[in-house]
Amino acid sequence: MYALVDVNNMYVSCERVFNPSLIGRPVVVLSNNDGACIARSNEAKDLGVKMAQPWFQVRHLQRQAGLVALSANFELYGDMSSRMMALVGRHAPRQEVYSIDESFLDFDGVPGDLVPIGREMRAQVLQWTGLPTSVGFGPTKTLAKLANHVAKMAERKPGSYPTEFAQVCHLGAVPLDALRQVFGATPVGDVWGIGRRSTARLNEGGIHTVLDLVHADAATLRRQFSVVLEKTVLELRGTACLDVDHEPAPQQQIMCSRSFGSPITELAGLVEVVSQFATRVAEKARQQAAAAGAVHVFIATSPFRQNDRQHSPSTTWPLARPSADTRLVIQAAVQALNGLYRPGFNYVKAGVMLMALQPEGLQQGKLDLFGASPAGAQAGTQGSTLPCRPAPGPRGVDGARLMGALDALNRRFGRGAVTVASAAHQARNGDHSGRQERRSPRYTTRLEEIATARA
Length: 455
What we know:
about 20% strand
């Protein structure tokens, strides 16, 4: 039996934990650069605010309906997510962290009624973190996901589903007639993995509810759509096709990109931000013990600034040997940037992506016959034995040991405490960071921003 634990309106709920005056008020959280609504409270949804709707389109609701807008505080949300995941993971033998606010739990072998366990788990998360959750149980992951949706909607919209399904719903323990009623009351577009285009096509074929989908011929759906939809139908019928992945596969690409608070016109400013992005992706690669074979860089002007000339180039710069050394990644990224940059343009966005990732120990040796290797080459290696010991980086310094010391110092003293010189100014001052005029304090990760209690 599976469970899906989901935080209700995660970003807004995190803000409400430390600012209870937001409870009951319409609240939205804005994306980087305060451009669009990426999270909405139920009250904001009732006002008609759509997901990803540009902020300028709903700004008038501040005066008309008391809408509160906050800048995204991802450092706070990530830390609160880690606390919640640690709590719910104690209740089941296996756990898959599916997203920042969702976690699958595998209760196989756990005896007894799971509904009380779900209510106890929900109460503990609420008491220990202040985050409200919904819990859905089912014999398959798709049914658990659907049960979670039912638990959430039964609480938010009384009458949409039976009241006993609110907050915690176990679709694997209800009679067949009750399950059919739930299926009949749920639009097919609310099923996990069925998007808007598939919903429209299914509706055209006469499939409007989950009950219609369950009764459809799975083989026909596979021919008309895909094997993914066929597996969805089988899961809704109770046949498990998906297992809990407690060890997710490593990422195949790692990217860091951002829009700037103000346009950058000079190469030096772009070098700073690109160096900072390269630093971040290299750090992420080391965290998953991976090395990159190539570095992809892009810069872009804004298509919304109609009076500006447009220029949005990109390029991929191969590394001579796969590496996660910050210095080598920055070196490749800056060389790629030099080929992309053109003076006279107002650049508003940039990004760095690591590609062709592989385990860090599987590195092919390289023989440099002429002593002049392109960016990313590391001298002092020989032969072609796999795996081989990481070679020293620039100037003969052992890259692996240096990067280990760098990561240790930044973990202890905070990100950006020690970095490469070309990224240092941007890391400490953030001159070109996106607008975050409405960001709340990072209560749980920054000592200088910790909440103050007055009595």
